[in-house]
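Fold Annotation — chain and its backbone
Encoding — discrete vocabulary of local shapes
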Amino acid sequence: MLNYVWISLLLIGIFTAVGRDIHDEVTNPYRNGVPITAHFETTQQPTSLHPIYKGTIVISAATFDQFYNVTSATDIRQSATITTLASGQLKIELPMGDETPQFWKEMAKAAGGKDKLEGTVSSFITETGALNFTLERVSFVKIKAVTKAAIEYADVAVTISLGLIGVMALWLGIMKVGEAAGLLELLTKALLPITKRLFPDVPPNHPAVGMMIMNVAANMLGLNNAATPLGLKAMEELNKINPKIGTATNAMCTFLVINTAGLTLIPATAIAIRAGLGSADPGIIIGTSIFGAGCATVAGLIAVKVLQRLPGYKKALEPDEAEVKNG
């Protein structure tokens, strides 16, 4: 089901991006192919060896706003370079800087994330500085952004997955050692009164109970990466006693609520980040973290326990007839 949700969201994003790009092609907000009039103040005259003009483009705020249909607080003063190409055509380059209008920065980013805008000069009168130029074409901005984000986050997903391999191997190994030494059994018996009430459908001595306890303990210590493999293993064990594979049981929903609520005693990761950024008191968030996570956990447990008893939210866990025949 979750796969269908992700595919639907991806398709919605693509269709929305295409729709916005088609709208932009019709309305032409970036003024593709349309020259803008400006005044060029030359600071460096060209020589025969270096046919380059360096200076500043001056455009009044009213002209800029009317041309791009935006709002500018002040007149535009943008550094620029005009180069004479071998063909005799004049090329203009606008380096992005603090003085650059925000709209031009967005155009440069949309044109490929460059640190400058380029264009062609249609007319340039050196004596008066009168200048007409057309910037490079900017199109299909939204679909390019969607494609770029998809590629970047695919790379992030692979990086995270590879990074978790070591953590999973370490903590699953620790779990195996603890299980062999009898520590998990002792911990499970000590917390039996709590786990029996939270997960009445799970046998008290089932391996899933120990996994869930260790996952919650890791979360309470703020060891997020360490908690992940334990949570995955707990769900795997819970699925083994699931009468209908693929359908979440009450125990699964309850464990998911506890896990995502993030009940924390020592937010180690957040404290480490604050300390790394130079916080004067990194541990000041401990109290508020405990209170916030505690409220979230209590609210989540109340909700899941109430909803699992309502007829409208119940899901039959009896195996389907097809599953019985195939099984």
Q: What stands out?
A: The chain has two domains: 31-138, 182-326. Residues 111 and 138 are 6 Å apart (CA to CA).
